[in-house]
Design a protein that fits this description.
Blueprint: H1 3-21, H2 25-33, H3 37-40, H4 43-55, H5 59-72, H6 77-89, H7 93-106, H8 111-123, H9 127-140, H10 145-148, H11 161-167
Helix pairs in contact: 1-2, 1-4, 2-4, 4-5, 4-6, 5-6, 6-7, 7-8, 8-9
Amino acid sequence: MATADKIRLKKTIAAAEGYLELGMHAHALGELQRRGKLTHSSSRACFLMGESLRELSRCREALIPLRRSAEINPDDLHVWLALGWCYKRTGQLRRAIESLDRGLSYAPNDALLHYNLACYWSLACERRPALNHLAEALKLDSNFLDLIDHESDFEPLRDDPGFKMLTGVIV
């Protein structure tokens, strides 16, 4: 990549990050789209494009740049989380689980990945992997216990004795 292109890409990424911080998702997307192929050559730029689309509730479209980002830089956990989030919201729960599993291959001790996997396995009505990932998330970061009561993804497990024992719910 030529030096001028590197400079343009760096400025585009900085502008998009700024827009996203300010909640100006459409502006961030426009900034990234304006650079076309240059954007698609960068994992970070593709991730930001996916995040912009995700924030605009365009999850199906967000999958394209997010997959490209993962292809370029597969060890970025944020990409795997974003992919999982978008797959879940587009009714592709198995792909959401696969994405987070892939993220775990790079960071097996990431509590957020385990917590989200517990949510997704719960939604899939797969008790054992849901409880295993939830136990691991809580072992790694007990603060996740505070989120469980308000997490609708755990509705399929609420009456499960193992879930109650793990979360300290008293009947």
